[in-house]
């Protein structure tokens, strides 16, 4: 009976306590407005760690960090804690912070070579994911110096070699590691991939070399054909010296002429066209026609050396040009010239002449890979004015 009465008294006391609890607020409780922010300050429930840990705002986290980085602990324990911290950042793909942790761990100079090997290998992995292939390879090599058969270090190093396109080294690393790990699937896959890339690179190099030899051979044949025809290539024309009217200086001025220059056959035109030798052994030149009266031009990308000028003029002016408002540009009304800039002379060309005949003239120089010619309308006021004061010679 007594125990029953005591139970009732206890219950009455609890009821009184609960009634009082309901009327009073717990002073240290989270507020209704910022409970999520307060909750996130507890280390166990943090979603992300702060960039800098202030003991005033994060006392619990500062305490944990002090434990982790306690300088009184043995270097091995400190290095291991930093390794674990780096692994946590690595899992979050925060590779920069992971590298900082692994580096700090290595600076502890612990005597546990297993930990040092893992720190180097993990730092190599972080560098690899950041695209720092050389740094990753250096760390993998350093890890192998400690443990030559460390599988992860070999794999990471081989991956770096493949990314750096040094496939022979990747194969060498794989072959050395396969002696200790002959059945490792990842190692065998990397070895096969490196060998495949190596053979493909060697094949591409052979193709590039063969193409280079072919291009060089074609250019040599082209230059030989130009030389055989006596065509002169000129990159730039020096102005004629005052008082030098004699054309006997023509041969002496050949020092400025690049007859066998590969650059001399590269057209500077925006079309990119250049002289070429066809299967029949004929040269085709990119030719420029200039109409100074209207500041217009025509460009023929492949003018065969055996074709006459009149043939192209007939096609070019078969229809009225948009800028020829007076309709006076007809093949039979046109005068054709080339300019000798060095001698400041115009040479009139017979429209029935072939391109080769003109190119072989002793005063014709192919400038920048494209022969150019001036076209005027016979008897026009502009033609008369244009020719005043100019030296004119026939072919």
What does the model show?
This is Cns1/TTC4 wheel domain-containing protein. InterPro entries: Csn1/TTC4_wheel, TPR-like_helical_dom_sf, TPR_rpt. It holds the Pfam family Wheel. Keywords: Repeat, TPR repeat. The protein is α/β, with parallel strands linked by helices and 395 residues long. It folds into two domains: 69-200, Serine Threonine Protein Phosphatase 5, Tetratricopeptide repeat; 249-394, Ubiquitin-like (UB roll) (Roll), CATH 3.10.20.90. Helices cover 49% and strands 12% of the residues. The protein has helices spanning 2-23, 35-39, 59-68, 75-91, 95-106, 113-130, 133-146, 151-163, 167-178, 185-229, 249-252, 309-316, 355-359, 381-387, and strands at residues 232-234, 276-277, 283-291, 296-304, 334-340, 345-349, 365-367, 372-377, 391-394. The strands form two sheets. Strands 2, 3, 4, 5, 6, 8 and 9 form a seven-stranded mixed β-sheet that branches. Strand 5 and strand 6 form a beta hairpin. The protein is elongated and about 130 Å long.
């Amino acid at each position: 009976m007594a125990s029953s009465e005591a139970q009732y008294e206890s219950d009455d006391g609890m009821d009184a306590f609960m009634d009082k609890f309901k009327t009073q607020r717990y002073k240290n409780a989270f507020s209704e407005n910022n409970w999520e922010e307060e909750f996130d300050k507890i280390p166990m429930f943090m979603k992300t760690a702060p960039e800098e840990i202030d003991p005033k705002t994060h006392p619990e986290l500062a305490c944990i960090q002090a434990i982790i980085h306690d300088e009184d602990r043995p270097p091995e324990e400190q290095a291991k804690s930093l390794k674990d911290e780096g692994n946590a950042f690595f899992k979050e793909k925060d590779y920069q912070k992971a590298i900082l942790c692994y580096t700090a761990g290595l600076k502890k100079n612990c005597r546990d070579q297993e930990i040092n090997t893992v720190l180097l290998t993990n730092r190599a992995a972080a560098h690899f994911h950041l695209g720092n292939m050389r740094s990753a390879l250096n760390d993998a090599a350093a890890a192998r110096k400690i443990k030559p058969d460390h599988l992860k270090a070999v794999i990471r190093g081989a991956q770096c070699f493949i990314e750096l396109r040094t496939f022979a080294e990747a194969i060498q690393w794989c072959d050395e590691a396969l002696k200790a790990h002959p059945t490792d699937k990842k190692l065998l896959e990397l070895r096969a991939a490196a060998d495949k890339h190596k053979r493909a690179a060697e094949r591409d190099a052979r193709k590039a070399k063969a193409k280079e030899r072919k291009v060089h051979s074609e250019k040599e044949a082209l230059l030989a054909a130009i030389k055989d025809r006596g065509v002169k290539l000129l990159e730039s024309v020096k102005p004629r010296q005052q008082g030098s009217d004699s054309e006997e200086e023509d041969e002496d001025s050949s020092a400025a002429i690049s007859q066998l220059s590969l650059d001399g056959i590269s057209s500077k035109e925006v079309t990119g066209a250049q002289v070429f030798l066809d299967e029949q052994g004929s040269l085709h030149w990119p030719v420029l026609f200039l109409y100074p009266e209207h500041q217009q031009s025509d460009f023929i990308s492949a003018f065969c050396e055996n074709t006459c000028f009149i043939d192209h003029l007939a096609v070019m002016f078969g229809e009225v040009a948009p800028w020829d408002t007076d309709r006076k540009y007809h093949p039979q009304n046109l005068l054709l010239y080339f300019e000798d800039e060095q001698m400041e002379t115009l040479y009139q060309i017979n429209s029935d002449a072939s391109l080769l005949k003109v190119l072989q003239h002793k005063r014709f120089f192919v400038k920048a890979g494209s022969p150019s010619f001036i076209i005027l309308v016979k008897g026009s006021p502009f033609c008369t004015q244009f020719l005043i004061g100019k030296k004119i010679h026939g072919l």
